[in-house]
Amino acid sequence: MKLDDFLRMALEKGASDVHLKAGLTPVIRKDGSLRPLSSKIPPLSKEEMEELCFSMMDPQQKQHFKEFKEVDMGYGVSGLGRFRVSVFVQRGSLRMVLRAIPHIVPTIQSLNLPESIAKLSTYQRGLILVTGITGSGKSSTLAAIIDDINQKAHKHILTLEDPIEYLIRDRKSLITQREIGTDTTSFSRALRAGLRQDPDVIFIGEMRDQETVEISLMAAETGHLVLSTLHTLDATETVNRIISYFEGVEQRQVRAQLASVLRAVVSQRLCQKADGKGMVPAVELLINNPRVKGMIENPEETKDLVIAIEEGHTAWGMQSFDQSLMGLLDGGLITVDEALRHATRPEDFRVKMEGIAAMDGRKWSNQNINAKNKDEWSGIDDVELDVVEATKTNITEPRIEIKKKTKN
């Protein structure tokens, strides 16, 4: 069978990734789990793997692979879609992993992202970071934000990618997509050149080194909207990762610079749906405001960013992972076990979840009454508590009013 046949079968089965390895039948990832593509396909031979891998490479990619023993590239199949491809060597033999990229650029709504993320596409300048582990949906979220700008504003949008994933057509905006290795040699070089190409919006596939971070911060300072990704788990780790690219006295300057230009950090974790059909993102969203800015500038306070996120849910539209997971639970989209598996602090999440479940009953026994109210209510057999503010999506401390029950 040809590579295109494997890919067509994989997409028909709803696969997100395809793994090819000599000695094994092709393997796919569907809904987060690995499984054989088909029991009818025999294991691939070493010769078949070489044919599959080298048939998609151009001379430049073949030279890169010969020198570095690995290469990343994009691969398109007419009528089927595009794929992000990684070819590498393991134990002396070739391996290939392909990630499916849909033809259609997703929308913010279709990805089940928080409504607050739609506002990010209206920003005129600053830095927006989308973070998460590999396979957490970063590329889809960024493509949705970029295409939302493309649909609504007259901008020049420059993307620097390795490789190009979603092909974005010109709508109201003018789109320039450059691929590292094919159209340019590195993110930092392409970014420096890009500043002279009259962009309004710049998307950088990944912040990989200090030079790229420096130029990105400078571009955001000089009036551009800059979007990029980092392989970090949450907003706190994202801030610390950017600072860690620098040493000594430079860190104070970078903290001030980042606090000034940062607009938002979107961190994602994909959760399996309760019905087992597909994935849904749990999203932590940090929006920069005066409080957040001070916490970024002060190293002692950076670790408490999650507190600012949770307490900024109503006023700023922020949410922590725990708040996001609680919302998904409330909507019946995920199970309790899945929520606990993705929670940042599972035990804390369990306590919050059980506390809110208890308050949903609206009645607590005397032993649950706050100690400071004990004297006031001594001798009363039954007390009713009115939960004024306690929602599953806003895990802030609820305000509870205590009322005597009317006695007949």
Blueprint of the fold:
Blueprint: H1 3-12, E1 17-21, E2 27-30, E3 33-36, H2 46-54, H3 59-68, E4 70-77, E5 81-90, E6 93-101, E7 126-131, H4 138-152, E8 156-161, E9 174-179, H5 187-194, E10 201-204, H6 210-221, E11 225-230, H7 235-244, H8 250-261, E12 262-272, E13 279-287, H9 290-297, H10 305-311, H11 313-316, H12 321-330, H13 336-342, H14 346-359, E14 383-391, E15 394-404
Parallel strand pairs: 7-11, 7-12, 8-9, 8-10, 10-11
Antiparallel strand pairs: 1-2, 1-6, 2-3, 4-5, 5-6, 12-13, 14-15
Description of the molecule:
The chain is α/β, with parallel strands linked by helices and 408 residues long. The strands form 3 sheets. A 7-stranded mixed beta sheet has the order 9-8-10-11-7-12-13, with helices on both faces. It has helices at 3-12, 46-54, 59-68, 138-152, 187-194, 210-221, 235-244, 250-261, 290-297, 305-311, 313-316, 321-330, 336-342, 346-359, and strands spanning 17-21, 27-30, 33-36, 70-77, 81-90, 93-101, 126-131, 156-161, 174-179, 201-204, 225-230, 262-272, 279-287, 383-391, 394-404. The chain folds into 3 domains: 3-101, 2-Layer Sandwich (Beta-Lactamase); 115-319, P-loop containing nucleotide triphosphate hydrolases (Rossmann fold), CATH 3.40.50; 348-404, no CATH class. α7 crosses α8 (250-261). β4 (70-77) and β5 form a beta hairpin.
